[in-house]
Amino acid sequence: MVGVYWIFRRWRPASVDRFFRVGQLFSAAMYSLGHGGNDAQKTMGIIVALMVAGGYLAPDIELSVLRWNTLWIILSCHLAMALGTAFGGWRIVKTMGMKITKLRPVGGFCAETAGALTLFFATHFGIPVSTTHTITGSIIGVGSTTHFSAIRWGVARSIVWAWILTIPASALVSMACLWAFKFVLGVD
Known about the structure:
Distance between the termini: 56 Å
Helix content: over 70%
Strand content: under 5%
Order of helices and strands: HHHHHH
């Protein structure tokens, strides 16, 4: 963000705004590609692990769109990502884009580009990362370049608490589901 400010320091604010409104179409597309590449792969890994454990796939299987027996895994994960983003993602987008800090097009471009590059790097090296953590850090970084007080720290704190509480909450839900299956099926 600081580099972009320096590069465009002689431009009129209206021209910078117009330029980065168009630029955001590309940065958002790149971030979406990184998001799908990283998050969909995590889900594919879980499905493949279950299929291998159940004996339906060989342990050395590689996912490919050219193989009919693995194409369904790839397409179903991408469909799940698309549906989840379309129906439930708006709240996250709204919180990230409007509640943490006020972003102008130049800030949105920088945050999305930084997030996309981070996701591309992580995906290339097979590192599973949270895309929400990535974009949150990018937005806070962009917002803090103007004024540290431009960040709504109460919103950021709530987001971090949600991240922390998600892991034990999902463990409790998993435990409850296991107990329910054991009770209903009578399996030890």
